[in-house]
Design brief:
Radius of gyration: 28 Å
Helix content: 10-25%
Strand content: 15-25%
Low-confidence stretches: 1-38, 157-163, 800-899
Number of helices: 19
Shape: globular
Mean pLDDT: 82
Length: 899
């Protein structure tokens, strides 16, 4: 055991850049567990919410109302502590932690900041002692969770190649029987190992199931007890990986503290969808929503047996070994209760659904509205929502009797067919009404962490830098550049190009605070989706508006800095010339072929294998937050290929703290939810830059012009002075030929979305961060559509009166019962329901891949539309399936602008 741990300790040299985080200003003095919300930015999500909690370590054990538990905190807050573990207390006595949000939590990122910590001890770039460890736990007791309830122990600091794996596990050494901790004479381990290992005198304790594998008398092993399978506790790495591993766990084994005692970590909260073994946000058998806990275990200079870490003494341990789940370390914890928003509909199976579909831009807003409407409606009727490609929205609204009669869109339904490679003007469209419901934007989220801490200033991007990043010009973005094997230097045109974006001279000039990750040995290409969309087209339009970027894309010569040669496979596409394409293709055709592996399998790698697509914007932002790079690295006969056979390219996985550079293209709502730093888009010189903000989105919205169907569109070439060029308006497009009940349901949804649903916040029914509230004009347009839909419903079904909702009233001269949801002072919704009118709720499925009051007339049927029906549906399924089919011989259409 000792030799193994010492061998792991030697690996600490692998993390050469781990030091203090960027210092943050203190949040100010507050009593234990007091609300400290100062308001967060509506577009970026930065700041704290009204449910934020600040708690000192001396009062850090909180109950399920986030009030200190007196008995649990008595000794640590006493002037004369009596616990045998009180030798640890001085390292934590001044620590104070702030969590930015504790209510209405979803799958998102929450900011954890602290002051008064002991500066992290490190030598030669290696973390040794004094840091925080964070994890998410379930736990039904009001007094909090147990270590067995926590998702922790992926090992290797959530990276198989990272150092000091012992503090990233659930296991450790038992002390000699009857031993007590001592700072002068620490007890040895039960197997005779030196005290430097840090055995725990409080283990294995009396927990049930026990904290040791039956028959093992020298080591403790804290089992993970999944909430959905409590009779099968999991011991050790081999068993826990069936529930979580280094690619799926949200644990933070090391969060460092700066020299001034401050620190920051962005923690990913997982719902029962992402972590079924925790079940956070799921409905329990008693009808209540399961809440969870954030547990923070501070680590100081001492092991549980009293051994003190030494930086200088020869033969002494230089860093901590023990697990944070051991009883003594767990006793030092801070625990904070997290109240989750419900996951899914929480409505009975078989509830009638009114289906809606559309752009993923609106997913987080719809999810918020769904929860409010479900609460008010008591599941009498349930809205369904699925984020789908634009072509699927057109297909669904074109098909008589299709399940969905409302599609959220940023473009006129059917107009995607007029883009390059499209099939022409959509046919067989019914009359459609468009109601504006949301304003947001496409953005670029970064997570950069190096030796001096997190880079918190926005990265600057020019059109030319973005063009280079998405056209595979950097050497590590090319599948046949394989420096670990002789004879694979990549194509000749790339030999003088930078290794990746961080080493590009133009990027370095615009971002001098960002160090080069050119020696990281991996692709730093942005995470992108595979869909064809107006959102991607707007990105290309912004690039094409820049003469330097456009010329570089088309002529194939080096860029303005004479440092980067364009990829000929992309130059051939003439991407710098309008009209803009609507995809982000993997067009490079070079393939790596290393011959047969030891198992006899051919080792080939294409662009799609090296840089796989991301399923959706939510996943892109989530992976950036967790620094989980999906690009592939070395071949391994042990990795399972997409076809289920052994032998494939291993994932690079989570990048270690201090060596993190990852970014992706997402939407402002998801970037805000995960707390990512939005990039600023700049002119070529970097003199004029603008990022997403309330002001920049408002300016761009004011510059927008209606298209042929009346929908507002922002021209990325001229978004107004200070306007953000990638701003989008999302509309609810409604098929007006639907039955009266559907029209009424759609009207109620739009009325809520444009009314109470425009209140900024994170509570049920609010407009989440990342969305700009609708202007008065856009609200009026939406409510005009509501009135028209209700009038049509009344005409189609004169014997029944359609309901009203929110602040919208029925057309003059009509008398209708009401079904409304109003916001009370507590932020909860109080339903007012007429028994004569069906009420409605809302469900949502995770994303896969006209100015309001006018109608678009019917268009003639095109035979090609029906011939392509099966292809469209298959394409939607492929979008939802992500990048599982990534081999060079499959899904060739993904490599080109349009199949």
């Amino acid at each position: 055991m000792l030799l193994s741990r010492i061998r792991w300790s030697g690996a600490l040299a692998a993390v050469a850049a781990l030091t203090a985080l960027l210092a943050l200003g203190p949040p100010g003095y507050a009593r234990a567990a007091t609300g400290t919300g100062t308001g967060n930015d509506q577009i970026t999500g930065a700041g704290t919410t009204s449910s934020a909690v600040t708690v000192p370590w001396t009062q850090g054990v909180l109950d399920n109302t986030n009030k200190p538990i007196a008995a649990a905190n008595a000794d640590r807050s006493s002037a004369t502590p009596t616990s045998p573990l009180s030798f640890m207390y001085p390292d934590f006595k001044d620590l104070q932690v702030t969590v930015s949000q504790t209510q209405d939590v979803t799958h998102q990122g929450i900011s954890v900041t602290w002051t008064g910590g002991q500066p992290t001890v490190e030598g030669a770039g290696d973390v040794q002692a004094s840091f925080l460890q964070l994890m998410e736990c379930y736990g039904d007791a009001s007094s909090g969770p147990s270590p067995q309830d926590c998702e922790y122990g992926a090992g290797g600091l959530v990276n198989a190649s990272a150092p000091n794996q012992t503090i990233g596990t659930r296991e450790g050494e038992l002390c000699t029987p009857g031993a007590v901790p001592s700072v002068t004479s620490p007890p040895s381990a039960a197997d005779g190992t030196s005290p430097i290992i840090g055995c725990d005198t409080e283990e294995p304790g009396s927990a049930s199931p026990p904290d040791h594998v039956p028959g093992n008398t020298t080591e403790y092993s804290v089992p993970f007890v999944p909430v959905n399978d409590p009779t099968n506790p999991a011991y050790g790495d081999l068993q826990t990986t069936q529930y979580f591993d280094q690619f799926t766990s949200n644990e933070i084994p090391v969060a460092v503290t700066g020299a001034d005692g401050t620190g920051k970590a962005q923690f990913e909260t997982l719902t029962g969808t992402e972590a079924p073994s925790l079940g956070c946000g799921y409905q329990e058998s008693n009808g209540q929503i399961r809440n969870c806990w954030l547990v923070i275990v501070p680590r100081g200079l001492f092991e549980p047996n009293g051994y003190q870490i030494s930086q200088t003494t020869s033969g002494q341990a230089a860093f901590l070994y023990s697990s944070p789940l051991s009883a003594s370390n767990w006793a030092m914890r801070i625990q904070i209760h997290l109240a989750y928003s419900p996951v899914g509909t929480f409505c009975p199976i078989g509830s009638q659904e009114v289906q809606t579909i559309g752009t993923q831009l609106v997913a987080r807003a719809v999810q918020s509205w769904q929860l409010a409407l479900n609460k008010a409606a008591k599941c009498n009727t349930v809205y369904g929502y699925s984020a789908v490609p634009e072509a699927t929205s057109t297909q669904q609204l074109s098909l008589p009797g299709s399940p969905a009669g409302l599609a959220f869109t940023t473009i006129p339904i059917g107009s995607e067919g007029t883009r390059p490679g499209g099939s022409g003007v959509a046919a067989n469209l019914p009359p459609i009404l468009y109601a504006p419901v949301a304003v947001s934007a496409v953005g670029f989220g970064f997570n950069i962490n190096e030796s001096t801490g997190f880079i918190s200033t926005p990265v600057n991007l020019t059109p030319e830098l973005l063009a280079k990043s998405i056209t595979q010009v950097y050497r590590y973005d090319l599948p046949d550049f394989y420096p670990s094997s002789i004879g694979f230097p990549g194509p000749s045109w790339s030999l003088k190009n930078p290794a990746n974006l961080s080493a590009d001279p133009q990027f370095v000039k615009l971002n001098p605070e960002v160090p080069s990750f050119g020696n990281a040995g991996i692709s730093l290409a942005p995470l992108t989706t595979e869909d064809h969309s107006g959102l991607n087209q707007q990105i290309w339009q912004w690039i094409q508006a820049d003469s330097a970027a456009s010329a570089w894309l088309n002529n194939g010569t080096t860029d303005a800095t004479n440092s980067v040669t364009a990829d000929p496979d992309y130059t051939a596409l003439q991407l710098g010339t309008p009209p803009a394409i609507d995809s982000l293709p993997r067009a490079y055709t070079g393939i790596l072929d290393l011959g047969k592996s030891g198992s006899g399998k051919e080792e080939t790698r294409s662009s799609l294998d090296l840089i796989p697509y991301i399923n959706n914007y939510d996943q892109a932002a989530s992976k950036v937050l967790t620094a989980n790079n999906p690009t592939t690295g070395q071949w391994s006969d042990l990795v399972i290929a997409p076809d289920g056979t052994p032998g494939w390219w291993s994932k690079n996985g989570a990048q270690p703290i201090g060596q993190t550079f990852i970014w992706g293209i997402s939407d402002t709502a998801d970037l805000a939810a995960y707390g990512l730093i939005d990039a600023r888009v700049c002119d070529d010189t970097g003199a004029t830059c603008v990022g997403p903000s309330t002001a920049s989105l408002t300016t761009a919205l004011n510059s927008a012009k209606p298209d042929s169907a009346g929908l507002l569109q922002v021209n990325p070439a001229s978004p107004g002075a200070g306007g953000y060029p990638l701003t989008q308006v999302t509309y609810a497009a409604v098929d007006t030929t639907r039955p009266a009940a559907d029209l009424t349901a759609y009207a109620n949804l739009i009325a809520y979305a444009a009314g109470a649903g425009q209140t900024p916040g994170v509570a049920l029914g609010d407009l989440p961060p990342g969305y700009l509230p609708l202007t008065a004009s856009l609200k009026a347009q939406a409510l005009t559509v509501v009135a028209k839909l209700r009038a049509d419903a009344k005409a189609a079904s004169p014997s029944s009166s359609p309901s009203t909702s929110g602040s919208t009233t029925a057309p003059s001269g009509t008398s209708t019962p009401t079904s409304s949801a109003s916001a009370s002072g507590s932020g909860q919704l109080t339903p007012t329901v007429s028994s004569a009118t069906p009420t409605v709720g809302l469900s949502i499925k995770p994303p896969s891949a006209e100015l309001a009051a006018t109608r678009t007339g019917r268009q003639p049927v095109g035979a090609i539309r029906w011939a392509l029906l099966v292809v469209v549906l298959a394409g939607a399924a492929c979008a939802a399936g992500g990048t599982a089919l990534r081999s060079a011989s499959v899904a060739r259409w993904l490599k080109r602008p349009r199949a």
